[in-house]
Sequence to fold (143 residues):
Amino acid sequence: MKIVMMSIATLVMVVLSALHTAYGHHSGAPYDSTRQITLEGVVKDWSWRNPHSSLRLAVTGINGDETVWIIEGTSPNILIKQGWKRTSIKPGDKIKATIHPLRGGKPGGSLLGVVTTDGTVLGAPPGSGGVSRTPQKKQEQTY
Fold:
């Protein structure tokens, strides 16, 4: 009986441990990985932190209205492998960012790459599908 109870306790601990790990990281489900869009705008904020970097990009529409897009990047250690530095972009910089947009249509997405005004390519260049976890896709829109 003691062996059975120890086995059950061990099994429960393994299952709970696995559940905690699965809960700890979110999926890419909010992003439409079948689409890529390129945004041209001004960096409002660039946050270089774990587990994900983040970019707030002010994009001016055809009608002159400004929309701030909230864009999630990957972790700094992966960005470094793609050629990024903490100072690669900063508030006030004009950039082109390629993203997988949010499925719901809100102004946000998952960062694929950036091209700065001097032509520096960070991550995947707009429209290339380059350094992302999904196969190359046709660029659909530019804002």
Remarks:
- The chain has a mean pLDDT of 80.
- Strands lie at 36-47, 54-60, 66-72, 94-101, 108-116, 121-123, 139-142.
- The longest helix spans residues 2-24.
